[in-house]
């Protein structure tokens, strides 16, 4: 019995790894025996996946399982790209409707939802797009309609974002009309947050330099508070999310004069 072509094997492995990291993010630990049954693969396969993830510093193996390393688990962007992609594309379309026509300076930070926004920005004219995300920069670099500004800085491999003093100085010198901000968490009480303090500083500067701030986040991010604070909820002008977001949290944001837009997939 063959395992299929190499590309299919890679897809299966990517799905397994995403599932393993998501499970750690949700529960903090799991057993090899249980997750092998759930995914329909051998224990040896799971052990190989865990060894590779431990080498990347994403978890710690234990006897018979694995535990999260150093608090909450940040899923690397390469493992998040295809999760709920249709929903993220719907959020991106709603974000484009929120962008005024005509010339303007738009900032986009890193993330899978903001990447979908960036893909749509490529079809607009008279835009200057500022980003600290390497994958977004690659998406836009050859687009003739877009004037692209990349911040420079030190690359953070888990998110493909440029951080540090160089990136901070660049952003601090630019006047931004609209910023599309991807987040790891946002709540009415504690505002915008992320896993990493260096990313938090970049995002905070991007928000401070923007006349209008639009947070684009799927419902899983709503009501979450992560380690590094970025900005209070009052710094956000609009939140674009989906119908899975907690209704009480959205109501609390509306009470703070944040425009909340629900973007869902079109009915088939």
From TrEMBL:
Which keywords annotate this record?
DNA-binding, Transcription, Transcription regulation
Q: Which species expresses this protein natively?
A: Streptomyces fildesensis
Per the UniProt entry, the signal peptide is none
SUPFAM superfamilies, per the entry: NagB/RpiA/CoA transferase-like, Winged helix' DNA-binding domain
Sorted alphabetically, which Gene3D superfamilies does this protein's record hold? 3.40.50.1360, Winged helix-like DNA-binding domain superfamily/Winged helix DNA-binding domain
SMART domains recorded: DeoRC, HTH_DEOR
PANTHER family, per the entry: AGA OPERON TRANSCRIPTIONAL REPRESSOR-RELATED, HTH-TYPE TRANSCRIPTIONAL REGULATOR SRLR-RELATED
- Where is the HTH deoR-type domain positioned along the sequence? 13-68
* Keyword 4Fe-4S applies: no
Task: Return the protein name.
Answer: DeoR/GlpR family DNA-binding transcription regulator
- Please name the InterPro entries in this protein's record: Carb_Metab_HTH_regulators, DeoR-like_C, DeoR_HTH, NagB/RpiA_transferase-like, Tscrpt_reg_HTH_DeoR_CS, WH-like_DNA-bd_sf, WH_DNA-bd_sf
Q: Which GO terms describe its molecular function?
A: DNA binding
This protein's record includes keyword RNA-binding: no
Q: Which domain of life is it from?
A: Bacteria
